[in-house]
Amino acid sequence: MQTRSRESKPDLARGCVALLLAGSVALLQGCDSTSAGSGSTDGSVAATGGSLAVTGGAPAVTGGALGPNGGTIATSGGTTGRIGGQPSTGGVSSTGGVSSTGGVSSTGGVSSAGGISSAGGVSKTGGISTAGGQPTTGGQSTAGGTGQAGAGAAGSGVAGQSGKGGSLSAGTPAGGTAGSGAAGGTAGSGAAGGTAGSGGSTTTLPTVRTITALDNGWLFYVGDPADAQSATFADTGWRTLNVPHDWSIEGATPPSNPFSSSAATTGRGGYAPSGIAWYRKHFTLPASGSGDKFYIEFDGVMANASFYVNGTLIGQHPYGYVSLRYDMTAAVTLGGKDNVVAVRSDTSVQPAERFYTGAGIYRHVRVIETNPVHVDQWATYIQTPAPTAASATVNVQTTVLNSGTTSQSVTVQGVVSNASGALGPVTTAAQTIAAGARANFTFSVPVSNPQLWDLEHPNMYQLVTSVRVGGATVDDDVQSFGIREIKFDTGMTLNGKSLKFQGVANHQDYHGLGMAPPKRAIQRRLAQLKALGVNAWRTAHDPPSPDFLDMTDRMGILVLDEFADTWTTTKYADKGDYSKYFDVAASTPTGMPPLPVVTGVSDATAVWYQVDFTGWIMRDRNHPSVALYSVGNEIGHGLSYRTPYLTKMIAMSHALDPSRSDTQALQSPASIGDYPGTETSDLLDVWGDNYDLATCLKAMVQVKTKSGLLTEFGTETSTWDSVTANPGLTGEFMWTGVDYLGEADKAWPSIGNTSGIMDELGGVKTLGYAWQTIWGAPKTTPPATGTTATQVVLTADHTAIVADWDDISFVQATIADAAGHVVTSSSAAITFAITGPGTIVAVDSASMTNETFRGKVRNAYQGIAYALVQATGPGTITVTASATGLTGSSATIQASAGSFVPCSGTCD
Predict the structure, then answer these.
(1) Beta strands in 70-199 (DSSP E)
(2) Which of 416, 511, 568, 669 has the smallest number of Cβ neighbours within 10 A?
């Protein structure tokens, strides 16, 4: 079965490696016609004996890291991981390999000391390619749109498109031809036992489930043409692009200015465009997938989305901030035939929120291929209670779904690993699962001398949960996690040490990138805030992306994970906000897991908030950075109205994730009945209060943990003395850390709010430096200023990037004097140009005055503007900047093939 990381880009040619899994099936990972597709030249695979050596591969690269939903991210040039998935370079093994009973390999392990990858990583040839490639390629595929799988023969242990291989292939929008590799090939028997090797950043075990990125080569149209869901709809004239994509930030006709004083979004939505837009994606599936289940998973679509496969409606969902998974097995065709997924997003009902929300498929998309007997959606849950430096116990519970037609006897096996290797597998007792039924499994894994997760050392582990039927592994689920304990008991402790939230509350937009930031843009912002002493982020006021939580895990930043800004009524006249469907009966399929069994909540009677709440908790509960849940922000209903809802939410939260506490960002609690009464404090674990310090200090002693939190407060520094003076007060989240789009009603021509301690591009304001001092972060100072502009100085914050959507370089153009000091009074128009394998995806500045973010020209704000540059291939990119009457400048960026690998700890 061919596998790919979500972060890997199918349009990048990669090398070849085969894995021998469960002693029975040869799995080919991306052989192209120039690597080891034949199983006989450099990078070749042993045909028998269950072992595998990569003789032509590049050395392992330390630093292959965990992906947001579990899998690993490939390092540059290496083998891809995948979500739930395959290893990054240096991942699976060094000498000794990784195996269990009937396991991966005999002596010699999964790979030689050079790691698991050959030089190029994973090739799309013979399998996973998506239509379109880079947006400028017009839907071309490599190899003429033909898979061209290697011709490995059955039984040789090498198959060109082996097992359930090469999951997706598409060339032009009408499709390509899937490779014709042999179905399977028999691997060696694999030795029982085996030991974990020491190589790589995280030891990642081979996996069975196939997860394929579906980000590249979408076709896009603003409007609502009839029959656009049909498989035969004529879409050749539509624009080709990659997702994630926020069409609202660029408008319907970029690079023209999309903002309008008469926009239906009003200033609350940043005067940005809204409406209906369609996305269509052509892809093929191999005949070898017969009998498998096929799911499509979206990390987020804004909003009111309808999902079709080959003209069949497979699901609808109104809330744009949650992730969704739909079963498309009955709708797809196999054997290289063209399939079309069509997505209709609708943000017509406006205003939709008090702030900018974006529009379209603004997060990642993937296809999941599984055995009918498999781990259910987000079902694996990991707890690490009371860990110490000497020992910890990893407690796991998961649910296996049998979507087949016959009963199956099932066991579950778990393997925990980190950079030091993998622990021995733990296997549960067998359970018989009837067709169409589910069964719960639990097991525990002891860990000696664990590497604890904390803010200074965000150490990560990985759990591979394998489903076994008749001794064979048929599915697996990979989750990253951290071993740590956060407790609230008259204050907050992390691993037994007292800690305060030094927090900022932020919305999710990234200015010129809108709601669709590459991972590196998220990393950059977190690093900028961390440099000011920030250790916590409140996701105001909706669930964040999986990418964001992956970053906070890696970088050691705590998260107050928040559910919704409204419940059943609007805060203003925002006709399209969450209250429109909060308590409305959910349509099935919901795209979410089954609801927890708690009083008054069931799938049969589910309403949207219960569905969304369930999926939100289950998706996010394994992230060590998630410290606390907030069930809502400033919900203004009367106490008697709110209490039944709050009761259900807290019961659901505690059922789904008993390891975490819950709060609510209360507004004026002393005037709407929350205090001095006890209905609210009896339910909340931590008292949450917006802008009311006095009530918070009095009311927090009523909650069971005797802990309180200023869930929102202003940027003034005077409050911090009260936070430090009160042991039970766990910290504060100031409004706000970063300027943001929207919440600018009647403020035209301004399209955003500038209340942050930092602007949208990372410029630190006076209050930011003040907080840096208070929080004890290393002191920084503002740049020197000049008076007379003579030149444009161009500086790339990253001079080396990879040709991956998730990587980006922020190229700063500074209007400067002769000494290079910024002239803050200048608003000169700066014209950018680019040559080489790169593209300017946005032009930007910290200004909130309406101005297009697309094209090549941006007015400087306080003397600074930016070109945001991504690579379209390997080579040297040159960016130039000019302004009338000033000496121009240039900067170079070296691009290479590969996948973006986020950093860890204090970085960027």
Answers:
(1) 72-73
(2) 568
pTM above 0.85, yes or no: no
DSSP, collapsed to helix, strand or coil, labels residue 605 as helix
- Summarize pLDDT for 544-564 with one digit per residue, the tens: 999 999 999 999 999 999 999
Nearest-angstrom CA–CA distance, 517 and 533: 23
Nearest to 441 by CA among 431, 426, 456: 431
State pLDDT tens for residues 8-44: 333 222 222 222 222 222 222 222 222 223 332 222 2
- Structure tokens that stand for 685 in this block: 């674990």
- What span, in angstroms and rounded, lies between the C-alpha atoms of 624 and 453? 7
**C-alpha closest to that of 463 among 401, 395, 402:** 395
* DSSP characters over 743-797: --TT-TTB-EE--SSB-TT-PBPHHHHHHHHHTTPPP--PPPB-SS--EEEEEES
Distance from C-alpha of 605 to C-alpha of 603, rounded to nearest angstrom: 5
Q: Are 545 and 620 in contact (CB under 8 A)?
A: no
Tokens representing residue 667 in the block:
């507004």
CA dihedral 534, 518, 633, 315 (to 10 degrees): -160
Integer angstrom CA distances of residue 306 from 228, 311, 313, 516, 611: 12, 11, 7, 20, 17
Per-residue pLDDT, averaged over 527-538, amounts to 98
Distances (CA, A) of 569 to 157, 302, 477, 673, 733: 61, 20, 39, 18, 25
User: With 90 as the cut, is the pLDDT of residue 229 above it?
Assistant: yes
> Is residue 156's pLDDT more than 70?
no
Indicate the SS3 state at residue 346.
Answer: strand
Place of tokens 């603003």: 222
Q: pLDDT > 90: what percent of the chain?
A: 76
Omega of the bond leading into 244 within 30 degrees of 0 (cis): yes
Lowest mean pLDDT among 191-205, 478-492, 873-887: 191-205
